[in-house]
Specification:
Elements: E1 11-12, H1 20-25, E2 32-35, H2 52-60, E3 69-72, E4 77-80, H3 82-91, E5 95-101, H4 105-118, H5 125-138, H6 144-151, H7 155-164, E6 174-176, E7 182-184, H8 187-200, H9 206-213, H10 217-229, H11 258-265, H12 268-271, H13 274-285, H14 290-299, H15 305-328
């Protein structure tokens, strides 16, 4: 498709869930030209097949501006870019730029879904849910967040799919998280491990507790809150007293970038509707810098800290659900 000399073919190792940080740092190899006639176009994650209107749009686009397709070299199956290949066929292009990838069928499916939610014609909600079900079948040890990240759904939706489908394989006693670490699912063991960690160091951070107990940070946060608040059947661990003058153990959240709020406020489709203005007002009240958050922390008296924590946790959950529903709309 593109002119000029080509470098030798190199393979791009598929992103492995146990090596996210390493894989993301790898630079993709330069593309090579491959004959369009040799490509296998089967195995797409799209339930309804090819979108012919999208193919027509790609046919009129500058081929040099389109990203290379991803191809499994042993089988020549297109992992990402089926619509681009169909557009090349309509134009009569004999060659197309490609990057070679490797992996088994399940790895290639994961890669295909992840690429299709990242650019080009988005996968439909039905496509993404079907992809999540397949991943639950072949990767029952992956956490809800791991699968959600790969299919473009919320962790809450993946969890509901996991519970709803009884024919899915039983999950092992652990899950692989987004960070590639393996976390135990034994709630009783995890609760006792957190209890012991708090008994040893009542002021330990959630991350320290998670690392000590071998569980995720989110799970550690939930168990720590239950144990300190007496929300379980065991003996609650007393929370350590906090001095009003004690320095913060870790930095405060960064808040919402002011520039991003200003960009939204300039959008007529938002600022000219009543509900849109309501949204902008809510976002503007939270567009704070690190120093502002520190000032707010200092303004909370110790005897009202738990009440503010409860409200802040509730608001954070509400915003998270709002973001999840927006993502799936």
């Amino acid at each position: 498709m593109n002119g000029g000399p080509r470098t030798s073919v190199r393979e791009l190792r598929i992103l492995q869930p146990t090596e996210p940080a390493v894989a993301e740092r790898q630079d993709p190899p330069p593309p090579v030209s491959v004959p369009v006639s040799l490509l296998d176009l089967t195995g797409s994650p799209r339930l309804n097949g090819i979108d012919h209107r999208h193919v027509e749009l790609l046919r009129e686009a500058d081929p040099h501006a389109l990203p290379p397709v991803l191809v499994h070299r042993p089988t020549m199956r297109v992992v990402d870019g089926v619509h681009r290949v169909h557009a090349a066929l309509l134009r009569g292009d004999p060659m197309i730029d490609a990057i070679f990838v490797e992996g088994d069928d399940d790895e290639l499916f994961v890669r295909s879904v992840r690429e299709n939610i990242g650019h080009g014609l988005p996968l439909s909600l039905a496509d993404r849910q079907a992809a999540a079900l397949r991943m639950l079948a072949v990767r029952p040890d992956w956490s809800d967040r791991m699968i959600a990240r790969n299919v473009g759904l919320s962790p809450r939706t993946v969890g509901a799919l996991r519970r709803r489908h009884d024919d899915a394989p039983a999950a092992p006693g652990h899950r692989v998280g987004l960070d590639g670490r393996v976390y135990r699912l034994d709630t009783g063991h995890a609760r006792e491990a957190v209890r012991q960690a708090l008994a040893r160091n009542p002021s330990a951070s959630v991350r320290e507790i998670a690392r000590s107990a071998g569980i995720s940070v989110g799970h550690a946060h939930t168990l720590r809150r239950e144990l300190l608040g007496g929300g379980d059947t065991g003996t609650p661990v007393a929370a350590p007293p906090r001095s009003a003058a004690a320095p913060l153990a870790r930095p405060v959240g960064q808040g919402i970038p002011v520039a991003l709020v200003r960009t939204l406020a300039a959008d007529p489709s938002i600022k000219l509707t009543d509900r849109g203005r309501d949204l902008l007002r809510l976002l503007a009240t939270q567009a704070l810098g690190p120093g502002d958050w520190s000032d707010l922390l200092a303004a909370v008296p110790s005897h009202r800290a738990e009440a503010v924590i409860t409200l802040a946790d509730g608001l954070a959950t509400a915003w998270r659900q709002f973001a999840d529903e927006l993502r799936e709309r």
